Every structure is written in structure tokens, then in C-alpha cells.
Amino acid sequence: MALHRILHRLSVGQKMLTFTGLFLVVIVFILAMASYVLEQQRALNTVSERVGTLSERVLYLDEVLTGSTRMAAVTGDTDWLDRYDSHAVRMDDALDELVALAPQDVAAAFEASTGAANDALLELEADAFRAIDQGDLDAAREIVFGSAYEARKTELDQGTETFLSGIEADVADRRDTLESLAYGTLAVGIGALALALLLAYGVARSITSPLAEAVAYTRRVADGDLTVDAGSAARDEVGQLLNGMGRMTRGLRETVQLISESAEQVASAAEELSVTAGRSSEGARQQSTEVSQVATAMNEMSSTVQEVARSTQEASDAASDASGRGDEARTALAASSTGMETLAGEVEQAAGVIHDLEQRAERIGQVLIVIRNISEQTNLLALNAAIEAARAGDHGRGFAVVADEVRKLASNTQQSIGEIEEIIEEFQAGTQSAVEVMNNGQESAGRNVGEARNAVAALDAIMAGVTHISDTSNQIATALEEQSSTAEEINRNITTIEQLASETSTAVDEAASASQDLSRLSVRLGEAVARFRL
């Protein structure tokens, strides 16, 4: 039960990872232990083989050393001593390697038990070697064949055998330990595999059992039974699936209920829509007819607007032409007014000059009057002189001549003054006439200048009116063009509306057909919903 509760808290992925991880740990543990045991077994076999080889070598070398020593004592040949020396080195190497391979306590016991015997045996052999060197073979034979040598040799051989037996016993113990370890590893592996199988069974049950429940649940839902409900306390994906399916069923139950209610409403609405679509179709056809009439009227209005726009444009062009000619007339009139103003000024100046001439003529007349008075007095003086010359006689003859000349000169002067007076009178008369003419011309020029100015002002007002007419005509033409464009746009829109009205009529007919189809579908939908048990 505890395992079941634990598995329910885990997701499917976590369950699979847990199972896979445990299985991998078991496999890795078994493989590691097997590898370790095999490695130790190989090492132990190597040691065992090496110990056997070294044991045989030690026993062999021990016999060789003993034989060489005794043969040297018997024959006296030093070659046997050389053979002893070479094999003694091999003997020491073999024993050192055995000591290194042996357990520490076995090696220590071997050194403790054979150390004294070995030293004593080496000392006896040294004595024998000296005797041989000295040629005393009897002494050498007595040593190597004596009881002391045999006793030390036996003691050393027994220690060596004990040492070799200890090594073999240690190898056997280590082999037993490895065998026990192998069996223990096997037992642990079997237990771990059993645990893994148990976990696998639990994982499978935690997955397949809810899945079976989900399959049974989905079958009931597929059969139309929406009264069932699903749920799970498990936190894994299958539990989430069951909870999700429960929510889905509740939502589906609500949806089917809503669909059932909506199907009834749709059936009712479809009938109303069918009736409304019939009325809309009739209205759309009537609208299409009226829009077609409006389109015809808009075409006629567009043509009329275009004609008025062309006429207004022609009026605008005529007003523009009149404005141009008015500008030319105004320019000429303005130039004429300027010339008249100049002429009036010149006439006024001429009148001033003539008036000045008149005043000068009057002054000349006054001077002539003075000259005339002087001439008359001169004539009187000449007469008096002539009278006095006549009274003087011959003495006054020369003075008489002079007086006569002076009188003649005075007479000529008076005659000339008379002529000059006539000329001056004529000049004054002409001057007065000229002054009157100039005054009249000045007044006429003034009036003409005023009238020219009034004409220019009137022409400016006319030009302003013509310009205003031209601008207004242009504005009207522009407005009519815009109105024509707008009318064309309205005409296009009306055409579009007419098409839309036709399409609307077709769509309404299709909607009526669709409403009938919708009514049939609502009936079928109600039949489909009826198979569900809510």
C-alpha cells in the first residue's frame, strides 16, 4: 500500500525514470561486483600460479645448492662452488618474491623461524668452502655430510614448507572470500532484480489500471452515456488524463444540453427567417427596380450638369476675354487721361504765359502812352523851337532845321506809336481771346480729365465686375465639374447599389433556401443530441 501511494504521487515519467534508474543501478552494481570478483580472481590465480612456480623453484634450488655444496666437497672442483653462487642468487630472489606475495604475518613467521637455521647453515657452508679452498676435502665432507648440517637443513626445509603452506592457505582463504563475495553479489543482484520486478509490476499496475478505467470510461462516453464522471487521486499523467476526461465530459454534457436547447431555438428561428427572407426578397426586388429608375435619372442629371458646365465654362471664357479687352481699354483710357492731365497742365501754363503777355502788353501800352506824351511834348518843343528859330532869323536857321528834324522825328514817333498801339490793341485783343480760349480749353481739359478719371473708375468697376463674373463662372464651372464628378460617382454607386440589390435579392433567396436547410439541420441536430443520456 505504501508503494502504491508513493507511485500515485509520481508522474509516469518519474515512475519510468525511477524504475530505469533502479534497474541500471542494479545492473551497474552487479557488473561492478562481477568485474571486481573476476579481477580479484584473475589476480589470485596469478598469485597462486606464481606461488606454485616459486615454491617449486625454491625446492629445486634448495636441492641444487645442497647438491653443489656436497659435490664440491667430494670432488674439490670449484666449478661446483661457482654453480652454488649463481643458484644462491636465484634462491634469494625467489624467496624475496615469495615474501612479497605472502601475507605479512606469514612472512614474519617465516623469517622468525628460518632466520637462525639459515644463518647457521650458511656458516657451515662457508666453513666447508674454506676447507675446499684449503684442499681439506675430508673436513669439508665432514661438515656437509655431518649431523649439524643435516639438522640445520631439515630445520630450514621444514620452515620453508611451513612458509609455502601458509601462502597456499592464504590463497585458499582469499579464494573462499572471493567465492563468498561472488555468491553475496549474486544474492544482492537477485534481490535487486526481485525489487526491480516488484517495482516494475507496481509501475505497470499504476499505469495500466487507470488506463483500463479510462478506456472503460471512454467507451461509455462513446456510447452516449454522459452521466458518468471520471476522476483520480493520482498525480501522474494518467490521473491527470482521467481528471481531464472528467472535466471534458462535464463540459461536453453542458455543451450537448446547450446544443439541444440551441437546436430548438434554431429550428424556430429558421422558420421565422424563412418568412422574413421571403419578405426581404420581395423588398429587394422592388428596391432593385427603384434603384434602376434612380440610376436612369442620375444619368440624365449628369448629362445636364455636364452641358451646364460647358456653357458656364464658355461664359467664363467670354468674361475672361472681356476682362482682357477691358484691361486694354483701361490702359488706353488711363494713358488718355494722363495725356489730358498733361495737356490741361500745359494749357494752364500757356494761359499763364498769355496772361503774362497781356499784362506786358498793357505795360507796353502804358509805356507807349508815356512815349506818346513825350513825343507830343517833343513836337510842341519842336514847334516852339521853330517859332523861336523863325524869330531868330538867319541865326536860328540851323536851329530851325534841327527843330524841323525833331518835329519830323516826333511826328514819325507818334505815327509809329499809333501803329504800335494798333498792334498792341490787336495783340491785347488776340491775347484776351487766347486767354478766353485757354480758359475755356483749361475748363474743357479739366472736365475731360474728370470725365476720363470717372471713365477709368467706371471701367475699373466694370473690370472688377467682369473679373468677379469670370471668377464666379470659374467657381460655378468647377462646382459643376465637381457636381458632375459627384453625379457620376453617385451614378456608379447607384449602379453598384443596383448590383448589390440584385445580389441581395439573390442572397435573400439563398438565405431562404439556407433557412430551410437550417431547419432540416436543426431537426437532424436534435436527433443527434437525443442519443446522449444527460
UniProtKB/TrEMBL annotation:
**Main subcellular localisation:** membrane
Enumerate composition-biased segments (Polar residues): 277-313
Q: Subcellular localization, per the record?
A: Membrane
Gene3D superfamilies recorded:
Methyl-accepting chemotaxis protein
Keywords of this protein's UniProt record, alphabetized? Answer: Membrane, Transducer, Transmembrane, Transmembrane helix
One Pfam family for this entry, by name? HAMP
Query: Which residue numbers delimit the Methyl-accepting transducer domain?
Result: 262-498
Can you give the residue ranges of the HAMP domain? 205-257
Q: Which SUPFAM superfamilies match?
A: Methyl-accepting chemotaxis protein (MCP) signaling domain
One cellular component GO annotation, for this chain's record? Answer: membrane
Q: What transmembrane ranges does the database entry give? A: 16-38, 181-204
Stretches with biased composition (Low complexity)? 314-323
One term of GO molecular function: transmembrane signaling receptor activity
Q: Biological process GO terms, please?
A: chemotaxis; signal transduction
Annotated region described as Disordered, given as residue ranges:
270-337
InterPro entries to which the protein is assigned, alphabetical:
Chemotax_Me-accpt_rcpt, HAMP_dom, MCPsignal_dom
What's the family? Belongs to the methyl-accepting chemotaxis (MCP) protein family.
Which protein is depicted?
Methyl-accepting chemotaxis protein
Its taxonomic placement starts with:
Bacteria, Pseudomonadati, Pseudomonadota, Gammaproteobacteria, Chromatiales
